[in-house]
Design a protein that fits this description.
Blueprint: H1 5-11, H2 16-29, H3 35-45, H4 48-54, H5 64-76, H6 81-104, E1 118-119, H7 127-133, H8 137-143, H9 165-175, H10 184-187, H11 195-199, H12 202-219, H13 221-229, H14 241-255, E2 259-265, E3 279-282, E4 287-289, E5 296-302, E6 314-322, H15 331-339, H16 346-361, E7 365-368, H17 375-380, E8 387-393, H18 401-414, E9 420-427, E10 446-454, E11 457-467, E12 472-475
Parallel strand pairs: 2-6, 2-8, 3-5, 5-12, 6-7, 8-9
Antiparallel strand pairs: 1-5, 3-4, 9-10, 10-11, 11-12
């Protein structure tokens, strides 16, 4: 899809506001999540045809993450074969690059303001390769029957800034299997080291993917609009295992519990509820969880104090509460979660597949409705001989203070006949009852809090800080 200077001028005229939205996404948000999406969002902002297509969607459905996820969905389900092919090739090369980088160096975690030392998160051996090879059988089942005929080369007349679209796409199409009847989602990521990745460099493949995405958007506008009309972006659904595992194990130890029932408030897909079955590798050399788990998590440790080493008690109940919980047993829901991950992020793709595998083997009980209203019912579902542990990870910030206080009162009221525990990972000052180490609100980090309600007694302690949604943490309490 040509992106001429004249076209750019028109894009910033008739569609100036939308163009600005996509340009800002390319400059501010996309660099943090995906090089491919950075290039694609910028190209969309410069294409009058693409902007016109986006404007066919309802105004609240035109945001870049949703449109990009819809395009990825069309690729994953083989409705846009050329886009499937080019996304596959870009994913393959990203996997190869990620594997090479992991083998050559371990990058130190960013130092938080005031953080003394940081033990960098270890690179999980084989994680990137697994991302390419391990788009699992669950993905295959979700995509069964969705494959179409082999992806054709780019349509006649297509051009690209790479300057060699026809030859390159033909070559990629030859080397990427999109044969009819293949397992679409399982095959989506080409194995690292394939001849596609070896023979076409990443910038060229990215240009091909960008042009294929714009052409798909323009030529399949109705299909894109149909997807965005019934979907919302599902971001940050992966489990927060690195921060939750030690916190849950510690609060269970403090309460003297031999078994726990987990209740995750604001659960989304419920992946936090399988925290006991994940494997966490900390930058200081500590490990927690199941070494054979399909979910391998790395996290950096700030400071010299170790993470608590207590084992997780037996989990006898897994209950999630959300206004819109995601039942990943539904193949369409699982496929949409995949579509919300950029195709050039192999580690995140592998992590999602592992989370889906765990959820399929131990589905949580999901409750749909208000976070506070459903809490008493959820607590009552935990067996009497187990400690109910309520977890909130950035789930309370969207509630007014009145509702947060009511949440606290619900926990207190339920503790009349047995102890109730609460593990809170919320922004500074968001969770009532927890001290904040004197930190100011909106400081860029979160407070890890542990509380035990027992009859009329509340024992609430702040035990640590975390950054980057739990990818970096400092444990500050004795354990």
């Amino acid at each position: 899809m040509p992106r001429s200077t004249a076209g750019t001028a028109r894009a910033t005229g008739k569609h100036s506001k939308l163009a600005q939205t996509y340009r800002r996404f390319a400059e501010v948000d996309a660099p943090k999540i995906s090089p491919l999406y950075e290039r694609l969002a910028r190209a969309l902002s410069e294409s009058p045809e693409a902007l016109h297509a986006i404007e066919s969607a309802p105004a609240r459905k035109r945001n870049p993450p949703l449109i990009l996820a819809a395009l990825h969905h069309l690729a994953l389900t083989y409705q846009a074969p050329t886009l499937t092919t080019t996304y596959k090739a870009a994913a393959s090369t990203a996997t190869t690059a990620s594997t090479a980088a992991a083998a050559s160096t371990t990058t130190a975690a960013p130092t938080a303001a005031g953080a003394p030392t940081v033990a960098a998160a270890p690179t999980t051996a084989g994680a990137s390769t697994a991302a390419a090879a391990s788009t699992t059988t669950a993905a295959s089942a979700a995509a069964a029957g969705s494959a179409t005929a082999a992806a054709p080369a780019t349509a006649a007349g297509s051009t690209t800034t790479a300057g060699s679209t026809t030859a390159a796409v033909s070559h990629v199409s030859t080397n990427v299997d999109v044969a009819a009847g293949s397992d679409a989602a399982a095959d989506f990521n080409v194995a690292a080291g394939s001849n596609v990745a070896a023979s076409v460099d990443l910038p060229a493949l990215t240009d091909l993917a960008v042009d294929a995405a714009i052409r798909t958007l323009v030529e399949m506008t109705d299909a894109v609009v149909a997807v965005v009309a019934q979907r919302k972006v599902r971001a940050n659904v992966l489990g927060n295992h690195a921060v939750l595992y030690p916190a849950i194990a510690e609060v269970a130890r403090r309460a003297g519990a031999g078994a726990v029932g987990l209740i995750d408030v604001g659960c989304s897909a419920g992946f936090n509820l399988n925290v006991d079955r994940a494997r966490i590798n900390y930058g200081n050399g500590q490990t927690l969880g199941d070494p054979s788990s399909p979910v391998q998590v790395s996290a950096s440790v700030v400071g010299d104090r170790p993470i608590p080493r207590h084992a997780m008690p037996e989990v006898v109940a897994r209950i999630g509460i959300d206004l819109e919980p995601i039942d990943t047993r539904d193949a369409d829901e699982a496929q949409w979660l995949r579509a919300c991950v950029p195709p050039d992020q192999p580690d995140r793709i592998a992590r999602l597949e592992g989370e889906l595998e765990l959820a399929a083997s131990a589905p949580p009980f999901l409750m749909q409705g208000d976070k506070v209203d459903l809490l008493p019912d959820a607590l009552a579902r935990v067996p009497a001989d187990a400690l109910p542990v309520v977890t909130t990870t950035w789930a309370l910030s969207d509630l007014p203070l009145e509702s947060r206080l009511r949440f606290l009162q619900c926990l207190d009221a339920a503790a009349t006949n047995r102890p109730i525990a609460w593990v809170s990972v919320e922004g500074v000052g968001v969770a009532p009852a927890f001290p904040t180490f004197g930190d100011r609100p909106a400081s860029g980090h979160s407070i890890i809090g542990l509380a035990v309600f027992n009859h009329s007694t509340l024992n609430a302690k702040a035990v640590g800080r975390c950054w980057l949604r739990g990818q970096m943490l400092a444990w500050l309490a004795d354990s």
